[in-house]
Amino acid sequence: MPKVKLRMRLFFSHMAVMVVGLSTLLIIGKLYTPQLFVWELVRLEGLGFNLSLVRPRLVEVFQVAWSRGAFWSVIVGGGTAGLMSYLAARWIGKPLQQMEEITRKVAKGELAARVPPYPIPELNRLAVSFNRMATTLEGVEQRRRDLVSDLTHELRTPLTVLEGYLEGLADGTIEPSPEIYLRLASETTRLRRLVNDLQELSQAEAGYLPIHTQPFSLTHLLSKVTTKFADQVPDGGPSLQLVCSPDLPLVLADPERVEQILINLLGNALRYTSTGTITLRTWVEMGSTRLAWIAVTDMGQGIAPDDLPHVFERFWRADRSRSRDSGGTGIGLAISKRLVELQGGTIAVESQLGQGSTFRFSLPLA
Ligand code: ADP
User: Fold this and answer.
1) Dihedral of the alpha carbons of 83, 85, 88, 94, in degrees to the nearest 10
2) Which residues make Cβ contacts (< 8 Å) with residue 225, sequence separation at least 6?
3) Which residues form ligand 1's pocket by a CB distance below 6 Å?
4) What is the DSSP string of 232-284?
5) Nearest CA to ligand 1 atom 21
6) Are 218 and 348 in contact (CB under 8 A)?
7) In the chain, is it the N or the C terminus that has fewer CB atoms within a 10 Å radius of its CB?
8) Tell me: the pLDDT tens digits for 160-195?
9) Cα 39 to ligand 1 centroid, rounded to whole Å
10) Which ligand 1 atom is at minimum distance from the Cα of 319?
11) Which atom of ligand 1 is least distant from the CA of 356?
């Protein structure tokens, strides 16, 4: 079947309606109106008027007048209706054609292309939905590009270090020693950790990380994690303190994921605090939604106000070179944020440079 454009279809359907209307009018008029005229003449004769001499002429004149009237009605009416059908078909067809062109552009990768607003409400709603979809696609594409560029940057450093040492060892400019091998091993460990973190982050961002929520007691989990960390604090390092009411209600979350978040927050607190106290605190908020808050407060180096909005971004580190040496990948907080959100909570940070930071997150109560 030949493909006819929508605009033409609309135009022809309007024309068909018009032709049917006009033909009906003409056929019925042609058959019925002269007959009606003759009946009327007969009625007048019945009333006493003598029309027998002029009757054939009157009928003839009426026929001519009717035909001319019908002819001009068809010309003027048909022409106007045809023009209006054409304009209406164009009014609807043109935006659709434009929309199709823009859809093709977006499909080809021109993600900034947008459909303009239309005066027809239904088409306008379609345009708004399309533009929303294009904006989402643009965001996804931008994040993909950022991830690839961040990733390249992150992988390049350990690879350059490894390459340098291995070349030095190969051409004899570096003497093989246990320290050199340890350095090589630590760089490969870093690479492995980066790959693991990335896998976890991509799963968390895509929402594929399995979250098994269940009602459980935070008190038990918090004391377990605090004891584990207290054993790792170096001599003369910061002390760990747990402030937690024993009658804390149960929360509805995944204990393993909550532990993972706590390990990240406490690990950071330890890494960026040399002396003082690191406090793990919980409280309950009884607002419109009932929440348990868990906060990790340290007395460490703190975060500058300009840096605060970026801490949950992946690969972001306040001091890129130093954090890299200390093993940070800048992914931990991005994963924690996603894990908190997947469990229906929120995460926030408050910090003062040189005084310390508080990272807190909420979980729904059971
Ligand atoms: P990293 O593995 O580098 O610690 P994170 O995502 O956990 O990655 O943290 C990102 C950055 O946020 C860190 O590199 C550090 O600059 C800053 N940061 C996180 N926690 C703290 C904290 N408790 N005190 C000071 N800075 C912090």
Assistant:
1) -90
2) 259, 262, 263, 266, 280
3) 264, 268-269, 272, 298, 300-303, 311, 316-318, 323, 328-334, 357
4) TSPTTS-EEEEE--TTPPPEEE-HHHHHHHHHHHHHHHHHT-SSSEEEEEEEE
5) 268
6) no
7) N
8) 989 999 999 999 998 999 999 998 998 898 888 888
9) 102
10) 16
11) 24
Rounded Cα distance between 53 and 49, Å, is 11
The rounded mean pLDDT for the chain is 89
Distance of CA 183 to the CA centre of its chain: 43
pLDDT at residue 108 in the model: 93
**Confidence category of residue 280, pLDDT binned at 50, 70, 90:** very high
Averaged pLDDT for residues 314-335: 71
Q: For ligand 1, atom 14, which residue shows the shortest CA distance?
A: 317
Whole-number percent of the chain with pLDDT over 70: 97
DSSP helix/strand/coil, 215: strand
Residue 125: per-residue pLDDT:
94
CB 254 within 8 A of CB 213: yes
Pairing of strands 214-216, 239-243: unpaired
Orientation angle between helical segments 255-271 and 332-342, nearest 10 degrees = 150
pLDDT bracket for residue 132 (50, 70, 90): very high
Best residue for ligand 1 mutational test, from 189, 333, 339, 351 (most atoms within 8 Å of Cβ): 333
Query: How far apart are alpha carbons 256 and 277 in whole angstroms?
Result: 25
* Residue 323 in this model has a pLDDT that exceeds 70: no
Do residues 263 and 296 make contact, with C-beta atoms less than 8 angstroms apart? no
Contacts of 224 (CB under 8 A, 6+ apart): 259
Mutate to test the pocket of ligand 1, among 240, 311, 337 (most ligand atoms within 8 A of CB): 311
Question: Is 356:279 a contact under the CB 8 Å cutoff?
Answer: no
Intra-chain end-to-end CA distance of the chain, in Å: 62
Looking at residue 318, its pLDDT comes to: 78
Q: Considering the entire predicted model, what is its pTM?
A: 0.63
